[in-house]
Amino acid sequence: IIVLLQEFCNLFVNQALNYLTPEEIFKVELEEALEKVQLTIHVLKGFKDCFHQHRLKISQYFSHTTEVKHWDFPTQMVFARFDRFLDRLLKIEELFDTAIEFLKLEKIEIGGSKGKVFSEKVYGIYEEFQECWRVFGESKYDPLDYNNKEFLSDHSRYMEQIHDFDKRLGSVLNLAFQNSGTLESAFKVLIVLWCV
Questions:
Q1: DSSP category for residue 148
Q2: What pTM does this model have?
Q3: How does DSSP classify residue 73?
Q4: Looking at residue 122, what is its pLDDT?
Q5: One GO BP annotation here (predicted)?
Q6: Can you tell me the distance from the alpha carbon of 96 to that of 102, in angstroms, rounded to the nearest whole number?
Q7: CA–CA dist 71, 6 (Å, integer)
Q8: For the chain, which residues make up each domain, given as ranges?
Q9: Each residue of 141-177: pLDDT tens digit?
Q10: In this structure, are residues 9 and 50 in contact, taking their beta carbons and an 8 Å threshold?
């Protein structure tokens, strides 16, 4: 049963690779790529959940006179490759989620006496993000290869930069709130952020 389940896992991973097309994943529209990655994650998690459900109910598949043989083997024996691939997909999903959020910065315009300065700072963060994101689009490696260390290095550097952008963006927005002299202008800042 272990070998059979490993083959199922390999089949799911190979079908996912065919569906996602590794060389195109960072070159297509972000929303489309994110949707495909999320669907793949959903299917893989569904398969693993199904395994665990049936593992618990294994005794129901035997007649009362037959001795029940439980699946007491370590799941790592079955899901070693599968879990590494799923982990890689979760990292890619995280990249796409943050990229979609940061690409919305292009549309932000903050009003008020210093609004133009604040808007320029936000747009500067947006341009820095574009440079950061370009690394993935121009990469030559297979991002779905869970053995690839280059991707992990780029992912870690990207997440560090995202944390830096978050802090800088937070300080700009904090200054925009402090600069808003009335409650109405503070609400306008909130509305601008909410609409993005």
A1: -
A2: 0.85
A3: S
A4: 87
A5: microtubule-based movement
A6: 10
A7: 14
A8: 1-195
A9: 999 999 999 999 999 999 999 999 999 988 887 887 7
A10: no
